[in-house]
Amino acid sequence: MALFEIQNHKPKIINQKSSIVNRPRRLRATPALRAMIRETELNARDFIYPLFVRHGEHGEGRSEIRSMPGVYQLSVEESVREAEAAMKSGVNAVILFGIPAEKDPVGLENFDHNGIVQQAIRAIKKEIPEMVVVTDVCLCEYTDHGHCGILNTGEHIHLPEGYVLNDETLDVLAKVAVSHAECGADIVAPSGMMDGMVAAIRDALDENGFENTPILSYAVKYASSFYGPFREAAEGAPKFGDRKSHQMDPANVREALREAALDVDEGADMLMVKPALAYLDVIRVVKDAFPELPMAAYNVSGEYSMIKAAAQNGWIDEAKVTLETLTSIKRAGADVIITYHALDAAKWLAG
Ligand code: PBG
Asked: Nearest Cα to 78, choosing from 45, 113, 52?
């Protein structure tokens, strides 16, 4: 019934003691009834679990990220252990972020055959071939300036110094994606919000024989303050300025449809909205506009840390709040959720 009809609905009272004919509570009476009419069901298979991989010295296989309790920077070996733990709890996808040994203006390790992410892809695919390995394709963790692309150092006189150059960056993103595919990545996920990035990566993958490697595009990514803890985790905070010249303004939703439509045209296989919680309306709008494409949402670092901090203070019930949060993201329209809660949530779902 449309809302307007409900509002104009006059209950018909025919030989009835009570005027309350409709009692939605009838279907909430028992756990079995509630389960029967539940509309949204979370599943461990919905999750993609982020892993931060770094070059490990002996004896320091993992170190906890201060602002993200329970999340670690991992050596290659430890990333395999963590992926195995994920698989065991029913989570069969991971997304890899790399912390390189050295940074430079271009981020050369990003497309080095022996780069940290390249090593981790090979190791995980060797030990757990059935694991879906997704890779984040961006420059910010690899560049010494911490920006998501090649910067204008003065050669483009009509652009500000330090401006992230779009087309020069596309060449690097394409190289990174091909390099990840060569190591066995199952899905590449460009996150830099460069114009034309999906097309550039699709072309490069196809030219190199990877026409079957899907692209999960961070199509709708906002310039959000919820990424704070991630920038500590991945050591990728910009050394100056911000990302507002390429990431979206949090105030916009119509623009999300434009971004998504462009990526669909360029050949994206899956779309993403990021962050998730402050953008549930955006997830819904994009899902309704492109129902035929699988939709991912990124439950980002700041969203994770807020729950963790409140739980550590004893202010909220971590398990219940986490599952309620993840359910809201799925209810909004996400088919897949990238979340640091993946392992815990899978365990809580299993009972
Ligand atoms: C870019 C990237 C970022 C995140 C994922 N990929 C950082 C940024 O755009 O500033 C943030 C994820 C999170 O906060 O959990 N490589």
From this structure: 52
**Contact between residue 336 and residue 295 where contact means Cβ atoms under 8 Å apart:** yes
Confidence of residue 233 (pLDDT cuts 50, 70, 90): confident
Q: What b/e string do you get for 223-233 counting C-beta neighbours within 10 Å, with b at 16 or more?
A: ebebbebbbbb
Which domains are delineated in the chain? 45-350 (3.20.20.70)
Nearest residue (by CA) to ligand 1, atom 6, is 191
pTM of the full structure: 0.93
* pLDDT single digits (tens) 255-312: 999 999 999 999 999 999 999 999 999 999 999 999 999 999 999 999 999 999 999 9
Dist CA 223 CA 227 (whole Å): 9
Does 221 participate in catalysis according to the annotation? yes
Say if ligand 1 is within 6 A of residue 140 CB: yes
Atom of ligand 1 nearest to the CA of 97: 16
CB of 227 shorter than 6 A to ligand 1: yes
